[in-house]
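Box 3.1 A note on notation
Throughout this textbook, protein chains are presented in two layers. The first layer is the amino acid sequence; the second is a token string describing backbone geometry. Keep the layers aligned when reading.
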Amino acid sequence: MSFLTRIYRITACTNLHVGSGKQSYGIIDNLVQRDAVSNLPVINGSSLKGALREYFTFHLTDPEHSMITYIFGKDTTDREKQGDKNQAGNYLFFDSHLLSLPVRSNQLPFMRTTTASVMKHFQDTLEYSQVKLKEQEQTAVLKQLTDLKVDSAKHFIEELEEADVFLEDFDKSAEFESSVQSATLSSIVGESLALLKHTPFSELCNDHHLPVIARNSLVDGRSENLWYEQIVPRQTVFFTKVMVPIDEKNYLEEFEKYLTGEKKQLVQIGANASIGQGFCQFSSIDIEPIKQEA
């Protein structure tokens, strides 16, 4: 079967906790999901698929719409009721990987930090998916970021060229770099970008630096269960890949209308919906197939 590739940007509009089910046996009780290779925060494909299934089930008028079955397959309850065998969905959902992490700054409320290895992973994902960014200028700037040598941190905001830009969580200043027009990539990684070396960026994402929120259960006004939960902060940006079968009726137009188009709403991913966590906005990243030489 042949597939179309779609790349989406996911922006956390509120704090996000997609739990790994693991504990650190320290102060943090509930940890977020992490990539097995980079150890950076990630949203596993199964978590993303489950969140999107719930989103479409809620927003479509018919919860048993054939679109849901086609895209996501039949859930366990449906199979048990109808005595069906497993029916997997036709869409392929991949892990959502980190693109940028917000860091407080003395010049702006926050700047979006990333590193060359993160940009390289995004670039590699496009290449092995046999697609490229539709705008050639974006491709050129992406390569500049992956190749740029950074001693500490660099930013690309012309208005702050003469200012002392201090990244609070990083605890260092960022120098202005004029050779990269990062605003070209704002629709992908976000505005106000700063590029860090890999090691300090990974440290910003580790268990000692990601925010931790105390949660409590009260019984008759007394604390009965205090626990600590790790979160990915709001304004963090991920990217994900979805592969769609090339069928006459693959529901892609309807899928994107509800996810990124005129009917889009915030998608809740992970835990704690009742306290306003995990609400994310999806947007399409414009790509086109790489033409294969004959």
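The two ends are 22 Å apart (CA to CA). The mean pLDDT is 90.
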